[in-house]
Specification:
single chain; alpha+beta; two-stranded parallel sheet; 1 helix; elongated
Length: 45
């Protein structure tokens, strides 16, 4: 899947019973069984 500013890819993966990775934030609440990992951007100091 491509980089998106959306929770939809993880939600779709959850609905289809497949795995997904989050991008830029924790997506586990949108796909608790689907989301394996995520890169989390922390832009603060």
């Amino acid at each position: 899947m491509a980089h998106t500013n959306s929770t939809k890819p993880v939600e779709v993966a959850e609905a289809r019973g497949v795995h997904a990775f989050g991008q830029a934030s924790d997506m586990t609440k949108y796909g608790p069984n689907a989301c394996l990992s995520a890169s989390i951007n922390s832009w603060g100091p």
